[in-house]
Structure formats: structure tokens, C-alpha cells
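Support case: user asked for a sample of complex input and structure output to validate their parser. Sending the pair below.
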Amino acid sequence: MLRLAFPTQLARAGIVGMNRRNVELIAQNNPRRLYPLVDDKLKTKELAEANGLAAPKLIGVVKLTGQIKMLPEFLASHEQFVIKPSRGSGGKGILVVSGRDGDDYIKPSGSRIGFDAVARHINNTLSGLFSLGGKPDVAMIEAMVDFDRVFDRFSFEGVPDIRVIVYKGFPMMAMTRLSTAESDGKANLHQGAVGVGLDIGTGKALRAVQHDLPITHHPDTGADLSEMEVPHWAELIRLAARCQAASGLGYLGADIVLDRLAGPQVLELNARPGLAIQVANGEGMARRVDRIEALIADENPPSDPIWRADWARRALGGGSA
Amino acid sequence: MTAKLQLRIIVGILLLIGIGVTAYKHSGLGFPLMPGSKETVWTAEAHISFRAQGDPVKVTLSLPHSTDSLLVVDRGSAGRGFGYHTENSGAGRVAIWQARSPEGDHSLFYRARVYRGGQPDVFASLDAPKRPDAPVFDLTQADAADTILAEAHSLSADNVGLALRLVQSLTAEEPSPAAQALLGEDPSFTDRVRMAQRLMHSAGIPAERVRGMSLEEIKKTSRLSDVLAVWDGETWRAIDVRTATMGLPELFLPWQFGSDSLFEVEGARDSEIRFSIIPDEVSGRQAAITLNAETGSMLLDFSILSLPVEAQKAFATLLLIPIGALVVVVLRNLVGLQTSGTFMPILIALVFVQTELLTGLALFLIVVSTGLVIRGYLTSLNLLLVPRIAAVLVVVIGLYILLSVVGFRLGITKALSVTFFPMIIISWTIERMSVLAEEEGMKDVLIQGGGSLLTAVIAYLVMTNRFVSYWTFQFPELLLVVLAVILVIGQYTGYRLSELRRFEPLARQD
């Protein structure tokens, strides 16, 4: 069975294809020189700090092997922290420490590791074991996010983040990725994670897909996905818009998580966000791009990200686009 | 100027140059568009034999002329013990052999290669001739000559027309009484031509006999035949006496013009000359190259064909790579196939060219899958990147040796061609596949690996297509057309074939 759509059908549905994304959205809006800002998480962190964007606090950076010796003392005052490579790919090399017991470090799973394991992990990170292309890297130590519990029943393992696509300062589409048993706890859609499209106006679930096909309930937890609603939505959308303003990238994917106390936090930025978000939303993004372009051409909107975020929630939300 | 407009202009220019040069090389320089089209090339040979008696001998041979449809290229001479040179003389060139005191029977050869195509008419370069002396006819012939000339004169307007009329009446199936009186009983062809020439001279018009041979007659020994050349007041015009038409007969190779002697042997006896024509089928492209090298076409002087053969061979392969790149571009950007490494499939396709497809595929699968298994074990050792790839490289070379030796022992000599695989590329492919397997799972490895192999096979099939390899090498300017197509695809913003499937659920809702 070969299900194929006609190109005209896709065009009518406003679907943006890979080629158009690469030529019109990425090449024309994202200058190459800005890529390091988002590809290197340490730089993203600095960017967030300089622009007052909420993000997990950076505790420290290990740049040289020699610095590892000083770590036990440095970490003494931190009960919980996350060690991650600055240029990691695909979520590899992230070590979460959720508690301490004497000299031991406790992982979220409850297992204990000694300092030698932590040191080895950092050593591997520095030598580029987890980085793209195996380049030498630095290890970042940042505060652990105290994840909001609202998603617990929607995700099989791990905590979902919210991906917001921001075009020229206007958040235009959002989704969240829920890991499943099939995706092995990874939030990767083509490995079987569930994508849930979120109404850009309200943060309520629009539609859920697994393997590009619509589903209604989470395959593992059985939760009704249509009940999903992301709290602090207005704040989250504004944060995404501000990320765009700070980074200068015209087509940006902002990955945001919700901290129980501190609210939305920027986890990562992406200069080449994918197109699966269209499938999760059940709608193409071309029409939204056109509306934003029309607004910019006709009404000379203020560049203030807050204004743009609020406009986008009103104009693009609720399926009104 | 927007990028789109610039691109269109560049693409337009590239297409114009690429297709224009190709068209010129085809129609102007005679490069055939299709591979394997044959063209006839002749070897014309003159063989002079004589008996020397110890006196100084000098042999002069008038050499064939190029015409507007044939090009003559000297292929030198043979003559043991004789000095040889050529010089310009009268209407054309002569070959001269000399020796101080030869004795006995001698044979001298002159050879030329004759190609289709040619140069401006040789006759055009000749100077205006003197007014010829009126020939003397005996009484019986004088009246007939006057009758024929008067008739021809009244039915013509200029020299050439007059000559054509004369030739017509002299070669008519049922000759007029006047013609019969002039030619006598059973005249030979040469007699007719001679008579036409005499009549022209008596009318005060310069006319010459041109002797040469027809390349159409494929005989071991050829005889010379005659063509009449008439001065039209400005230039010499050839008249084919047999058909009484203007112009040289087709495939007529003029060897001797007018009163120049065909050959002369001084200081020897029993001299004799024989001619032979040997036709030869060569590829049209070879003929075009030789022909244009002789006429000194600029385009060829600055083309790949002017390079040494070894370098030409290298370019024949290099020029296929853009075609492979085009295949990759089409499959990735228009079809949406995933490949591991952008141009790795091209390199694999190049290997297939050397190993044959099935052998190559089998060897590739064996090496890569074995490599993946061993690389999988290396993962558990937590090696650093460069040592890890270096280790994979060593493993790959080990596999090459193992495959070759075991294959050879088992009598599978094809296994030896495993060495054609570039091991650095193979190592990186294994490394990348292995990382992919860890990060995304085996399914992705199969998708990307399968995509790469499919791309490599398609690229191989296209690159080994004999039309494609002929065109890329003979018409390297088509590279510009390939570039233009790649540039156009580079700005294609439409959907990929795979996306028609991927986004199909979204289209269904409408």
C-alpha cells in the first residue's frame, strides 16, 4: 500500500517541505555565524544569562582534565546537579545527580556511584566521546530542574520539553514530545515517541501522533492526550520569543521545560528545527509564515518580543490561522 | 539583483555555453553525438618502382591535394637508401627522393591518410593562368571543332557554361557527327577529356586536366582518372566530365594538376607507378580528433584531448564524478532518500566500476557488516575518537587481507578486488553507521545504509552507461549543463517524493 499525496494537496494544506525549510526558512533567516550560539550549549547559557532568559543555573564548567581533582570540593555544596557535554548530540552524555549520601552520588534511578565514576564521565566528555564528530568538548555542570509534575501521567520515562518554533520573533507553532516504551525513553519522534501538537494560543493539546499517525491515548500510560494542557503558557511563549530576539536567528526552535517553582526554563535552542511539528499539529506552517510576513510587510509591528508573542497567541492560536 | 534572478542568469549562461559548445563540436568539428558511429578513413598509397644503374637518381612525385570535402595528411614515405623531402611546386606539393648511386630494383612508397572534411578549395589559391596557345587541328577536325564550339558558345553565357556544353556533346551517348569526327572510333575517357581541353584552349579559355583517384573504388590497385578544370575568369572550376556537372566528383582525390608531371624518375630505367586505396573504418570521434588536430582547431588545443593519454584516462574517470554528484543531488533533494555521508555513494559507485556490480556489492556488505560487529565491540572499550577510527582502519585492512587470501585459496579471485575500496572511506562509513546504530537504532542504519547502497548502485548504472561516459568525456562542456541542473535543484523549494508520503495524513484532512 503506497499512500502518496499530490504535491498540490500538500501545498493547499500549507505544508513546508525539507527543501523549502532549508532554502527559505533556514538559509534566509539564520546567518551561519550565529550557529555556534545554539550549537554550543555553553554559549547558549551565556546568551541566556546576558539577556535575562530563564534557564537552569550554570554551576560550573570543567574545561581541563586537571580541574576534575578540584571537583569534590567544588560540588560539596550542591545536592543536585546535572553534568552535560556542551556540544552533546542526541541527549548523550547527560549525567543527573539527584542526591548525595556521604561520598556517593545518587542518580534519579536510585543507584549510587562514586566520585571515580563521575570523574570518568567528565573525562569522557572532555575527550569528545559524546560530542558531534568527536571533537574535544567541555563539561557543563548546571542546576537540576525541578520538573513540574503536570506531565507525569503523559510520559513513559523522562520529562517532556516543549518545542516552540519562532519565526522572526513570532512563536508560530508548538508541540511536546512524550517518550514511550518503544522510543526507549527518548523523545525522538521517528523512534516512536508521541508528538502532541499544542495550540499556540492556549497550550492545550490539539492532536497527538505516533509514527505520523493520529492517536488519542498514550500507548504506555493510557492517559487521554487531549486532556494535556501546559501551564504558564503565556509566559512560556514570551520566553520563546525572547530567545529569538536574543539569538538573532530568524527561524528558531526553542526547547523549554517547566520548573515547579521557577516556571518555564530554556533548555536548548535549535537553529535547524525539524518539520515533524507540522504532523503533530495536523497543520502546515506555511500559512502562519505567510501571515507573519504579511503583518511585517503591512503594519510594521514593534520588534518587542513580548508584543510579538502576545500577537501570535491571539492571531495564530485556536486554529484561527 | 535578487539571488533568484542571479541564479537564473547564471543557469542561462551555463546552459548556453554548455549546449552551444557541444552543438559547435558536433556540427562544426564533426564530433558524433552518439558513441560508436563509424567513419571511413582512407590510406592512399603511391608505389614507385624502378631499376637504378649506379647513377644519381632523383624521383619527383606530385602529392595529393586536400579538397573541400577531403583532408589529406601526410603519413611519410618509405624508401631504403633514399633521402626524402617535400617541397611546394606549382599548383601543389611534390615529394622528392634522392640517392647518389643506387643500384638494382628499388621501391619507393608515399602514404597519406585521407579524412572526410577539409579545407577551402585548393584551386582557389592558384594564380591566374596565361591565355593558352590555340591548338592546331587537322583539316578534317577543324570544321567539326568549329561546329561544336559554335553550338556550345551559343548555348552558354560564360566559360564554365561553355565547358559544360562541350563536355556534354563529347560524352553524349549518341554523339553528334561533329563529335564523332573529333573523337574518332572508340575514344577512351581520357581522350574525351583531352579533346574538351583542346577545344577550350582553341576558344582561348585556360583549361587543365586534373588527375586523381576516386576513393569510392575499393581496389587494391587504382587507376587515376581525370577531371577538367576551367578558368572562369577569377578562379579554377572543376568539372566532372563523366556526369557533365560542376564541381569535383564525390570522394575525388586530386593528385596532379595540369602540366605538372605526376612523377618523374631521373637516372633510372623501367620506372613504374602504382596507386592503391585502402578504406578503413575508425570511430567517428577518432577521425574528428585527428582531423581537427591537423586543421589546428583552438577548441581542441585547449581541451582534454590535447593531454597525454594517461591524463586523459584520469579525466575520463574524474568527469564521471559530477554525474554521480547529480545522481546524489536528485536522490536526496528530489526523492528524499537518506544516505550515510553525502558523497560516499559516489566513491562506492566508482569502486563498483572497477569491481563489477555484484562482486562490489557483496564485498562491500561483507566488509562493512564485519567491520560494524568489531566496531561494536570497540564501543565497549570507551576509546577516544581518533584511536577508535584508527583501530577500525586497521581492522578494515585486516579484513581486506583475510578476504583476499581466503577468497584466493577458495578460488574466488574476484575477492582480490576488495582492495579497490578506499579504506579510509570504508572506515568512516563503519564509524558513522556504528554511531547511528547506537544513537538511533539499527532501523536507521538499515535505512541509511540501504539508501547509500541504492544511490551507489544507481550512480554506478548511470556512470557506466556508455552514452553517459561517452558524452562526459567527449563533451566535457556538458559539465556546465550538469552544474546548471545542480544549481536549479539547489533552489528547488518544492516537496520531495518521500514527503508526499510523510505528510500524506495532513493532506487527507482537507
